[in-house]
Amino acid sequence: MPAINPAAVEFLTTRRSVPAKALRAPLPDRAQVLALLTGAARSPDHGKLEPWRFIVLQGEALIRLADLAEQRGQVLGLEPERVEKVAAQYRQAGLCVAVISSPKEALKIPQIEQVLSAGAVCLALVNMALASGWGAVWLTGWASHDRGFVTDGLGLDDSETVAGIIHIGTATATPPERPRPDVEKLTTWIGA
What we know:
Blueprint lengths: L5 H9 L8 E2 L5 H11 L11 E7 L1 H17 L3 H12 L3 E7 L9 H21 L3 E5 L7 H8 L6 E11 L11 H4 L6
Helix pairs in contact: 2-5, 3-4, 3-6
């Protein structure tokens, strides 16, 4: 029988993201953010390619991104409510980490494995923040997938995409529990 880490099992089975609207100051400082990123970087990475990178967003950068989301939303002809929802996510944030999927050329490691590695980093960063006492949530939104927004706002090159925008701060509210998947219905067992 393997040795069980009860605290880790309890954390993973009860963890809950905190809505971005419920995150406020105080925020982690530079050393604390680097510690969170260090933990998140211990994610699966076949071939040790590091097919992701981080952009830490705070202060005026978040206001600039909110303004850019409004501009891009108008250019794209999106509904005002949809545009404002994304702009508000940036405008109201105190600290965000954009996890950038940045695939590398590799004959033996398919691009999908590299993209999935970036997704694993997103979840690991949320879990690191939560385990460290911060509130956190993984968001994206239409702007994260708009080439004009990510190029002008985040400086991404054509091969890069946003895997997630991780909002981190002090939780001001405990989110209510929500329905969870019925794992039995989602599981197929194959024995032979």
